[in-house]
């Protein structure tokens, strides 16, 4: 493989709705779709695996726990103008967990996909 690829798996409630959301709002491209069990989308080197409860990743663990969407783990998308991106996504009715937070490394906000999984949008601080 010539390009480095990073795979992230998210459990989702509705595979097709998740594909549509990532493609429409965040510029991902669909790779494959076996909804309602599984689909994957790509943006640059990131391959996002979207697994429904009917996928092999949705099987119960030996102790009976079931994988589910949500939580706090996330991947980060770097954006050039965070405020403009937040405004664009809010105007489309998308859900954020917080407001923009700024620290020494830059600014960030947490966006939720239709299943409650988190995507961090991040704008690095300007460097002198």
From TrEMBL:
CDD domains: VOC. This is VOC family protein. Residues 2-124 form the VOC domain. It comes from Mesorhizobium marinum. Keywords: Metal-binding. It comes from the Bacteria. The keyword Metal-binding applies.
